[in-house]
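Record type: ASSEMBLY
Status: queued
Input:
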Amino acid sequence: MNFELPKLPYALDALEPVISKTTMEFHYGKHHQAYVNNLNNLVKGTEFENADLETIVKKSEGGIFNNGAQVWNHTFYFMSFKPKGGGEPTGALADAIKTSFGSFDKFKEAFSAAAATLFGSGWAWLVKKGDGSLEIVKESNAGNPLRNGLTPILTCDVWEHAYYLDKQNLRPKYIEEFFSILDWEVISARY
Amino acid sequence: MAFELPKLEYAYDALEPHIDARTMEIHHSKHHAGYTNNLNAAVDGTELAGKSVEDILANVSQHSVAVRNNGGGFYNHNLFWTVMSPNGGGQPDGELAAAIDKAFGTFDAFKESFNKAAATRFGSGWAWLVKQADGSLAVTSTANQDNPLMDIADVKGTPILGLDVWEHAYYLHYQNRRPDYIGAFWNVINWDEVTRRFKV
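Status: finished
Output:
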């Protein structure tokens, strides 16, 4: 199976001023594309040659895992956005957030803290556990919670390439603005 | 005495075009300053206050994550600024050149090994040329702000050359082209300082 870079449901400049067109051109057009290309090259002749992406994320190691998980993570990340997003979820996800964190604001605070304190490159995740409750986890580099039997609901990329052209060392500012482009309809459907 | 952010021996724009002034300014005055302040906060009032950063890192497995991350970040950047110079580049001679030939065969083979370590470090980290306990040289890489002085390192020794491959070190100028940044680094390496560290 040949993996492909997914099409985005918005233009590369649509998330400005939170995420610039230049950042999108590199992040989606270069980094995400490179992970796709690397993955396609690496799986050739291996047991993962015909595997689906989720299997690769769950079972592979080394370079295949790094590139496969980065393809999965970036697709999940980019698909969480829409121009003029933001606000709060409604329905079942809103209830679950309230049950697990007390309020949306407390969830936002905990998620932001996880994203801000992840040291080095990686991802902050909102995940659903087997019992339907929610949890926030941090994963370094290409880490993905599917490997621990958790269901990803939302992720924030805190590799420096995600924000350095726009915010430089000000990662907390990127995280704060990240909430204003979230598409809670898409995110709620994952729950 | 508290740890202090060192002054650079050259201006922020002195390493251009290889490393741009804006990157240098943010890297030194924000990132390195942040590690310095956070390290001071992490050791303040503990038994580590007053110890050298080398001593702290040698037993880092016994200390907090904050000490590991910020102690490494403080030390690594201290080293990084000194092993670069506007008059850098070229190749070492004398004892260091001989040690490189002995360990790697040729300078070019060493360069290839170091470049590979820097290019293949996945995520954030550093590439190192290390003087090991027996005096021989080795190339290694570490994740995040770890380094070869740490008791947790796979390859231990005294780092004599280090290259920062966190994206903040090159992203404003090179974006996703980390290999171009690694290639440019060779034009600013201060071999006098690397040689001095080798002879200590």
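Annotation: Residues 19 and 63 of chain B are 34 Å apart (CA to CA).
Annotation: The two ends of chain B are 24 Å apart (CA to CA).
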